[in-house]
Design goal:
Elements lengths: L1 H5 E3 L5 H21 L5 H15 L4 H13 L1 E6 L5 H8 L5 E8 L3 E7 L2 H9 L18 E3 L25 H9 L4 H12 L3 H18 L7 E5 L13 E6 L26 H19 L3 E7 L6 E6 L4 E7 L2 H16 L1 H16 L13 H13 L9 H6 L8 E2 L2 E2 L18 H14 L7 E3 L4
Parallel strand pairs: 2-5, 7-10
Antiparallel strand pairs: 1-13, 2-4, 3-4, 6-7, 8-9, 9-10, 11-12
Helix pairs in contact: 2-15, 4-9, 7-8, 8-12, 11-12, 12-13
Keywords: Membrane, Transmembrane, Transmembrane helix
GO molecular function: poly(A) RNA polymerase activity
GO cellular component, one term: mitochondrion
């Protein structure tokens, strides 16, 4: 795990600009603290700590499994522009009880409908037809991506304005500034920024649904496979509009560990590859071709198989997500779990990370264009390292998280010990009542403004 996220050497193009901006922050911070009146300071800190404590009760693996199970009971429906919500729900609910639903816009109006049981999806699909296309031939792949059409037998409603659309893109910086100016303190501003930029429950549900739809395609070759999201989608630091990273998990396929004792055993006849990498490339090549040829709504498919980590990249138009699919990327999943744990331990961690990332993007320290820039992941590790180094640390080290783990938590990946405690109630944090404002201005920016970027590295294993 050290090679993945334990250490981070910072030789980056944006480092020099980071230092200059950090050094300028001293005077700016003093001016802000002089003007600001923190009338709600004690209440804000108390609420922040309480929010972090309640969030710590969630288990990473249990939360992912719950999301995945919900996605398997869901369908994605393209709706006509003048659809009425009541009429829509009345029609869909004829096939089963609806547990949850929401509407959003992306190349049209879409609805995500979660049923109570999978049988409801079968009943719904039994009433679906393959569209007839003039002068073309349709690929008869029956996915859970459906289209609702008017048949002419019912009256078309013009009450589309009754629909409430969930947001799936971040607001512009100009609009963000207006929201921040309405807040009474810097602490409230940082919390407001997080609320406006973070992934919503609906957006996360849609991401898991896209993974589930893609799994339906891969299941033609690997019926027991799972396509899991990782990175920003599940690590609690995802921003609206971020890419959807996912990987094809084949580790759970049965038959890998067969019991012995009868003197006889059966084995599947399988193809052999020269290395795990070549097998991964072959699998992704086939899955990528299927996505390109049979996956409705999947466009711009690129098979980037010679990259350090082979992947298939494409755009999923119905959701609006840019997607990257890899295979058996267990290290990335474990990295996501670690960030999730740190984000749940103290609510101030997420507020600080979202603020630093926004600040860095506005000042051109980070960029959406690939290159020798400091990345959001590196900035997140910087925040974690800084919070571990406080006089009263907000966060434990990675070694401390490993030492608290149960035997069932043990995880060795490619020779690296990636063990992280799963029971967050076992983690005892030191008492720290610093405000977000003081941690951000007086702490982070000034601390790294004088950092010797070209000569040192950081690591979050121990301090």
């Amino acid at each position: 795990m050290a090679a993945c996220f334990g250490m981070c050497r910072l030789h980056m193009k944006g480092a020099e600009r980071f230092v200059k901006l950090g050094q300028k922050s001293d005077l700016r911070a003093r001016r802000i603290f002089t003007r600001a009146t923190f009338v709600t300071k004690a209440q804000t800190v108390k609420k922040t700590l309480q929010a972090g404590a309640s969030a710590r009760k969630e288990s990473f693996s249990a939360l992912q499994e719950e999301r995945r199970e919900q996605a398997e009971r869901s369908v994605l429906i393209s709706c006509p522009p003048n659809i009425n919500q009541k009429k829509f729900l009345d029609y869909i609910s004829k096939h089963g009880h609806i547990e949850n639903h929401f509407f959003y816009q992306s190349y049209g109006i879409y609805a995500v409908v979660e049923f109570s049981t999978k049988e409801s999806i079968s009943a719904l699909k039994a009433n679906c037809t393959i569209p007839s296309v003039q002068h073309e031939a349709a690929v008869p792949f029956k996915s859970r991506l459906l289209s609702l059409k008017w048949t002419g037998q019912g009256s078309q409603s013009n009450a589309s304005n009754t629909l409430k659309f969930q947001k799936h893109l971040p607001i512009p910086v100009s609009e963000l500034t207006q929201h921040l100016c309405k807040q009474e303190s810097i602490d409230q501003q940082l919390q407001c920024l997080t609320d406006l930029y973070q992934l919503t429950d609906e957006n996360i549900s849609l991401r898991f649904l896209v993974c589930s739809l893609l799994r339906d395609i891969a299941a033609a070759y690997f019926p027991e496979c799972i396509i899991r999201p990782f990175g920003s989608t599940i690590n609690s630091f995802g921003k609206l509009g971020c890419d959807l990273d996912m990987f094809l998990d084949l580790d759970g396929i049965s038959g890998l560990n067969q019991r012995k004792g009868s003197g006889l055993s059966l084995e599947y006849q399988v193809k052999q590859g020269t290395s795990e990498r070549t097998v991964t490339q072959s699998i992704l090549s086939v899955i990528g071709e299927c996505v390109d040829q049979f996956g409705p709504g999947c466009v711009g498919v690129q098979k980037i198989l010679n990259a350090r980590c082979p992947l298939v990249r494409f755009a999923h138009q119905p959701s609006g997500f840019q997607c990257d699919l890899t295979a058996n990327n267990r290290v990335a999943m474990k990295s996501s779990e670690l960030l999730f744990v740190y984000g749940k331990l103290d609510a101030r961690v997420r507020h600080l990370v979202f603020t630093i990332r926004c600040w860095a993007r506005v000042h051109s320290i980070t960029s959406s264009i690939p290159g020798a820039w400091i990345t959001n992941f590196s900035l997140t590790v910087l925040v974690l390292f800084f919070l571990q180094c406080r006089t009263q640390p907000l966060l434990p080290t990675l070694d401390q998280l490993r030492d608290l783990a149960d035997p069932s938590d043990q995880c060795i990946i490619e020779g690296n010990d990636c063990t992280v405690v799963s029971d967050l109630s076992k983690i005892k944090l030191q008492k720290n009542t610093d405000t977000l404002a003081s941690v951000f201005w007086e702490g982070f920016l000034l601390h790294f403004g004088v950092w010797l970027w070209g000569f040192v590295f950081i690591q979050i294993h121990e301090y």
